[in-house]
Give the backbone structure.
Amino acid sequence: MTDPAVTAHRGRRADVWPLIHAERAALAADLAGLSDEQWETPSLCAGWTVRDVLAHLTAGASLDAVRWMAGVIRCRFDFDKQVAMRLAEQLGAAPGETLERFRRVVPSTTKPPLPAMAMLGETLVHAEDIRRPLGIRRGYPSEVVTRVARYYQGSDLVVVAKGRIDGLRLLAEDGPFTTGSGPLVSGPTLALVMAMTGRATYCDELAGDGAELLRSRCGELIP
């Protein structure tokens, strides 16, 4: 007989993929009309253009556990080197090709050895890394930003988030998300997510006694 806990876990994992696919599709639509100059806009990821970030998202949706491990071994366990290698594989010869490659992975359920929620978090955060510098705004579904916030409150996998908000109380003003105890940081759920993952520019949208402490932690490598 199947363990009910295992069945519930599989159900939660399965219901994340439609959210990932919807966010990928929305991002592809937002980027359809970019000029070549806009594609070279610096993203919120230091050293990467918005085109680079999109290629990185494509790589993540194209890389299963076997290929991921093969790359780790090939790069001698230099994870940054593997990220750069996979990005280059998906960049294409021109921005149009970069976008087309991303469109092809919109329905993909391929992923590295990470939880599906980590993929949703990556999709949302990197989409904002692209959209914000381009002046594009998206009204994310409350379910998406709330689930991502709840995931990051307890995870330092891929990106330090749990450690960054240690000793702070976060409170969303536009949804049900709240976590922690200590000096208050309040604001839109999206801004809380982006600050949790180290994007200092979103701290401008946050208030409370803990907001400046969170800002000071953005960009830090929290052990």
Remarks:
- Residues 142-217 form a domain with the Nonspecific Lipid-transfer Protein; Chain A fold (CATH 3.30.1050.20).
